[in-house]
């Protein structure tokens, strides 16, 4: 069986790593394409995956359109003469459009109901849509999703990141981090270049939070790109991590995570590390999932975030157990079923 997987964002590498390895071990023929964006290429190399580099990410709106259009053109040249049985992606703009045009059955994983432009361009074209049960089905239908093709599960996509996770408790030593304090906070800036968030890539909502909390804990910053790293350079007691790194072990080793994004916050919730979300955009249902379970605190008020952070550093938080569906098996089963039985 020949499977096409398209990777368009850094967290998607962790999402697909065990799926890729499973299909490789089963002897399936994989075509993996990836665009130049964030740490995708570094992470693919770190996991030892062969891939075809196709396209890049635009910053301004017209650039996003031009780059996506060019990427479709280049991908068609690569894939048109391949006999692909099924295609698989997570929020790829291009894969559903190409799969539909070339008659390739597609499995699409989504977790962001607020990515309006992306969802309108992709959801109507997919043969199987796998989404968390907490996302409002009617919201997806409003984008053109076929409810008969929608497969829902209990949990979020981050649960699959830890299928083969092995915790490295010596991660700080391995990274040669010179940390003077007894407590450590990992911070992740906002996804400033994303189409669904109106943000300045040279500013961060984390700046005033860092300014206060650096006096109480070691601060680790994991930037998304160079401009974000520059925001926090030269600040006392602040260490800027250079990806790719074992983020999962870092999250588990830290006393607290404060994130202005999404994926890493939810990873912290899965790992039961106290986490505060200060994401500046509209709250996602997948974040609400962990807030409802008492595994994530959310606020956009700087003082409230700081006070809650200090409370977490002093008092150990409760860690309620959560039970997820087997998302890994759900994806594997649907890929095989779609390849064998068609749409």
TrEMBL record:
SUPFAM superfamilies on file: UDP-Glycosyltransferase/glycogen phosphorylase
One Pfam entry name: DUF354
Protein name, per record: DUF354 domain-containing protein
Lineage, top ranks: Archaea, Methanobacteriati, Methanobacteriota, Methanomada group, Methanobacteria
């Amino acid at each position: 069986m020949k499977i096409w997987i398209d990777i368009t964002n850094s967290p998607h590498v962790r999402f697909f790593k065990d799926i890729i390895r499973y299909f490789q071990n089963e002897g399936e023929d994989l075509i993996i394409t990836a665009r130049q964006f964030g740490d995708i290429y570094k992470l693919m190399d770190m996991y030892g995956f062969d891939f075809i580099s196709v396209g890049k990410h635009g910053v301004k709106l017209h650039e996003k359109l031009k780059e996506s259009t060019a990427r479709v053109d280049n991908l068609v040249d690569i894939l048109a003469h391949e006999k692909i049985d099924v295609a698989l992606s997570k929020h790829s703009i291009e894969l559903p459009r190409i799969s539909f045009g070339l008659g390739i059955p597609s499995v699409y994983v989504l977790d962001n109901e607020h990515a309006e432009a992306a969802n309108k361009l992709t959801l109507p074209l997919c043969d199987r849509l796998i989404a968390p049960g907490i996302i409002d089905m009617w919201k997806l239908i409003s984008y053109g999703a076929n409810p008969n093709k929608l497969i829902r599960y209990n949990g979020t996509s981050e649960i699959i990141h830890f299928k083969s996770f092995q915790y490295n408790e010596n991660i700080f030593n391995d990274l040669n981090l010179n940390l003077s304090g007894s407590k450590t906070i990992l911070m992740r800036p906002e996804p400033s270049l994303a189409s669904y968030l109106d943000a300045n890539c040279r500013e961060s909502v984390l700046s005033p939070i860092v300014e206060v909390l650096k006096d109480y804990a070691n601060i680790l910053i994991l930037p998304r790109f160079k401009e974000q790293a520059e925001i926090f350079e030269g600040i006392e007691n602040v260490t800027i991590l250079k990806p790719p790194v074992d983020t999962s072990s870092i999250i588990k080793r830290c006393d607290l995570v404060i994130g202005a994004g999404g994926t890493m916050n939810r990873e912290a919730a899965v790992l039961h590390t106290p986490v505060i979300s200060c994401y500046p955009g509209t709250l996602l249902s997948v974040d609400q999932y962990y807030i409802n379970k008492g595994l994530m605190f959310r606020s956009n008020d700087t003082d409230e975030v700081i006070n809650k952070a200090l409370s977490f550093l002093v008092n150990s938080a409760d860690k309620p157990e959560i039970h997820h569906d087997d998302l890994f098996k759900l994806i594997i089963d649907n890929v095989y079923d779609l390849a064998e039985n068609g749409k």
